[in-house]
Specification:
Blueprint lengths: L12 E6 L9 H7 L4 E3 L9 E3 L16 E6 L2 H10 L3 E3 L20 H11 L3 H8 L5 H7 L1 H9 L3 H12 L1
Parallel strand pairs: 1-2, 1-4, 3-4, 3-5
Helix pairs in contact: 3-4, 6-7
Amino acid sequence: MLIGLSVDYKRMELLIYHANQCDPKKCSGKKLARFELVRLTKHINQLRPFLVLSPFSEKALSPEDKGTRGLAALDCSWAHAEEVFSRVRLKERALPFLVAANPVNFGKAFKLSTVEALAAGLIILGEPEHAKLILSKFSWGHVFLELNREPLLEYAAARNSGEVVEIQNAYLS
């Protein structure tokens, strides 16, 4: 490797569909954009080439999804999210069981902030350093990794979506 050459070019591209429906002071997506770690869009069609994290997907995100152009998340109300996913065909994946560390939903399962969702996706797709980077911008970011260390390691080691679901079910039972 050449001295001084940044490894940033290897990072997966992150995109957030942002509907301006949240408190700007608490918005993890906007904070990531200020650090130029994600790109925000108001255009749903820009999500098409990305793997989109969706609670409505019937398939779980897994390491078999590696090689995707980028990872996208929706930063909008649940009602708006349902509308987005019902009218546009996207390549979607659901995140498995994880616990939130953000101050608004601390300790609640499946109630992840946008940064937590993207970080979880990055870890499952084999980019843990990228996940740590985006979480490092939040005082509670390391707590998300600590709370979810074991399941994230197991999900990242799974072969496919079916195995991720089996691992999730073991945690839920």
